[in-house]
Amino acid sequence: MPRVKPSTAVRPAKAKWSQQITQDSNALDLESGVFTLEDPVEIAQSLKRSAEASQRLKSIPFRAAMSMLCFYINRAGNQLSDTQRARLESAKDELRVLFGRPRRGE
Questions:
Q1: 3-state SS class at 52
Q2: What is the maximum span of the chain, computed from C-alpha positions, in angstroms?
């Protein structure tokens, strides 16, 4: 029996599963453009506001905010510039401070 050639019709683009998580998960309702802000303190403050305002959290606000930040960093992978990665890593420490937790390594 001859093999059937797959269709070459253009299919609509599927949304990435990681995009769906940031938009629809029970983690946080993020403010627009939070990860593109230039100041790590502003990023941390935005994540804190989002975590404390969310009614859909499955965990404490600190954990939800930190999880979303780590998720973004890990999913972006090599697509993040060195400066943006450093900025987001600094935002982790700022987030710890805002929630009254020690900075990493202290």
A1: helix
A2: 68
Locate the domains of the chain by residue range.
36-98
- pLDDT reported for residue 9: 67
Token duo for residue 26? 């029970």
Cα–Cα distance for residue pair 86/93, rounded to 1 Å: 11
Helix axes 40-53, 61-76, angle to 10 degrees: 130
Tens of pLDDT along 62-81? 999 999 999 999 988 888 99
pTM of model > 0.85: no
Q: How confident is the model at residue 27 (pLDDT cuts 50, 70, 90)?
A: low
Q: What letter represents residue 85's amino acid? A: R
Residue 77 CA: distances (Å) to CA of 68, 73, 84: 14, 6, 11
